[in-house]
Design brief:
The complex is a heterodimer of chains A (381) and B (258). Chain A has 381 residues and is an alpha+beta fold. In chain A, 52% of the residues lie in helices and 15% in strands. In chain A, a hairpin with a 2-residue loop joins strand 9 and strand 10. Chain B has one domain: HUPs (Rossmann fold). Chain B has six helices and eleven strands. Helix content of chain B is 28%, strand content 25%. The chains are: A alpha+beta (381), B alpha/beta (258). The structure holds flavin-adenine dinucleotide.
Chain lengths: 381, 258
Amino acid sequence: MSFLTTKHTLVRRSVRAFCERELQPIAKELDIEARFPWDVVEKMGKLGYFGIQVPAALSGAAMDSVSYCIVIEEISRACAGLGLCVTVHNSVGVYPLVAFGTEEQKQKWVPPLAKGERIGAFCLTEPNVGSDASAVESTAIRDGDHYIVNANKVLVTNGAVADTCLMFVKTDPAAGHRGLSVIVAERGMQGFIIGDLEDLSGNRANAVSSIRLTDCRIPVSHLLGKEGMGMKIGLAALDTGRIGIAAQALGIAQAAMEEGIRYAQQRRQFGVPISRHQAVQMMIADMATKVDAARLLVYRAAAQRDSGGPFSKESAMAKLFASEIASEVADMAVQIHGGYGYTKGYPVERYYRDARITRIYEGTAEIHRIVIARSVLEEYK
Amino acid sequence: MPLNIIICIKAVVLEAPDGKVIRTSETCALNPFDRPAIEMAIRLRDEAGGTVTAVSMGPESGSLALYEALAMGVDHVVLVSDPSLAGSDTFATSTVLSAAIRKLAPFDLLLFGTRTSDSDTGQVGPQTSVLLDIPLVTGVTAVTRKKANFIVERKIDEFIEEYEVALPGALTIHASALQPRDASLMGLETAYGQEQFTLMTLKDLDILAEQVGDNGSPTKIINMQRIQKKRKCEMIQGSVEEQAEELVRRLKEAGHIG
Ligand SMILES: Cc1cc2nc3c(=O)[nH]c(=O)nc-3n(C[C@H](O)[C@H](O)[C@H](O)COP(=O)(O)OP(=O)(O)OC[C@H]3O[C@@H](n4cnc5c(N)ncnc54)[C@H](O)[C@@H]3O)c2cc1C
C-alpha cells in the first residue's frame, strides 16, 4: 500500500502487541461491566497515545495522520470503546486547542492532555440538538471577565472521565450559527455536573455521559478562538475526527473478519470445516474485500490530510464507507458463527453492537451523504 | 562513570519459510530474545549516563530491527550490510561484528541476546567475544555495578552463579532477565526522524572478502526439511471417572507425569 512506510509497519506492530497484551484479554469484561480501564489508559498515556499528532513541543508524538489511523485501528481491533476514547480525545478534544488556541491556552491545556494525565471531551449534542449544530440552546452570557454558562450536553464520549471539555454554546443566542462559540470547561469548576453513564448498546468501555453546567462562571480566557467561531471550529474538528471514527470502524471490521475466518476454519459441519462450503467462502471474500476497500479509503483520507490539501470529502467518504462495512462485516461474522455468534461466548456479538454506532456519531450516514454529494456536485458544476 | 554500551541485535524472519527466505520489512522483526538485552542496555545507560549503540549485520530489511531499537531508546544504530556478506554462518557473522565493533571502540560493555528465534544457535555472542578477546558471561539475569567492574548473575540448573566482570566485557542477557519496554509513539516517530543511522559496508571494515559470506563460513547448510509430526487421536471409553483414571495411567506410563 503506497501510503505505508516501514515506520507504519512498526507502529502497527508496536500498538498491536500492546493492545493484544493489555486490552484484548479484558475487552469482554469491560463490555459486560461497562468499565473504563484506568490502568491501561495510564500506560497508553505514557506511550503517547493521547497526543498522537500533538507537536513535540507540547509533549505530543508529532505523528502523521496515517500513523494516527493505524493506532486507532489497532486499539479498536482490541476494544472499540477505548478506540473511541482515544480518537475523540485526540481529534475533537485536543486538536482544536492546538489549531485554534492562543499560545497561553496551548501551554496550559495541551501538555497534560497529550500525556494522558487529563482526558478531553467534545460537547456539542444536546437533548434538542443533534445533526443541526446551529440549534445549540446552551448559553454563555458575558459578565465582566467571565461567562456565565448554562449548558445541557448529552451523549458525551469520555463524559464521566473528562477533565477538559470543549463546550459548544451560544454567546449570542439571537445570531443563529454565527452566535456559536467554544468555551473550555474544566471538571471541578463550580456548577460543572457529570450526569449518569449512558447504558450503551456497544462501546461500553467508554464512559459516555451527560455533562451539565449550571450558572458556571468561566473566565473569558477560556474562549477558544473568537466569539462566533464555534461553527468553524466544530467543522474543522469533525473533518479530522471523522478520519478517526473511520479508523475505529475499520478496526472493528478487521476484528470481526478475523474471528469469522478463524471460526470458519474450526467449525465442522457435513464432515468438513465450514470454510469449505462455498456459501461461507462468499462471505469471507466479501468481508476481506470490504475491509481492504475501507482501509484504502481511510489511509487515503489520512494521506490527503498529511499532504496539506483539503480532505473534507475524502474523510467523509472514508467515514461513511468504513462505518457501513463495519456493520456488514460484523453481521457476516455473526452469520458464520451461527447460533453461537448470537451469544456472549464469542466476541462477534460485541463487534456487532460496537459497529452500529459508527454510522451515527460524528455525523450520521445521511449527513455524510449530504456532505459528499454537495462536494461532488460542486466538482461537476 | 558513563558507560559506552554496544549491543548486537538481529532482524529475524517471522515465519519458517517453505523454501528460500525472502526478507522484507513485513516478514522480518527484531529478534524477541534481543529485547531484554536492549532493555538492560537502556537501563544501565540511564543509571550511569553514556550511550547505547546497536549494531546489526544483515540486508537492508534488517534496518527495521534497528529502528525499533531506536524507538525503545537506543542512541545510535549501525547497519553492517554488503552483498558479499550473504550466506555468512555464525562464525563469519562474528568475524564481521567483531570488525565493526573494533571500529566503534572504545566501549565498556558489549551485550547480546542469548539466541535468535529463527536460527537458535546461541553462538554469535560467545564467538564475537572470543574474537575481540574480552571476558564473557552468558545467560546473565542481573547486572549490578561494583566500582569499575560489574557483578553479574547467571542462573544455571538449580544454582545462581555470581561473577565479577572487568571492563570491557561481554554479556549475553537471558530473556527472563527483564521485561522489555514498549516503544512509545514519540520514540517511533523520532527513530525515523533523525540522523542516528550509520551504514557500514565491507570496505569500512578491516577484513577481507574471503573471511565473510559463503567463503568465510566453515559450516554449510546442506539441506533443510520440515519435520512431519505424527499425531494420533485415541478415544478413551467409559464413565468420566474411568476415563480420568485411564488417562492418568497412560500419562504415567508414557513418563509425562510422576
Ligand atoms: C456512543 C455515543 C457517543 C457520542 N459522543 C458524542 C460526543 O462526544 N460529543 C457530541 O457532541 N455528541 C456525541 N454523540 C452524539 C452523536 O454525535 C449524535 O447522536 C449524532 O450527531 C446524531 O444526532 P442525533 O442523535 O440528535 O440525531 P438526529 O440529528 O436527531 O437525527 C435523527 C435521524 O434523522 C436524520 N437526519 C437529521 N437531519 C437530517 C437531514 N438534514 N437530512 C437527512 N436526514 C437527517 C439523521 O441522519 C438520523 O437518521 C454521541 C452519541 C453516541 C451514541
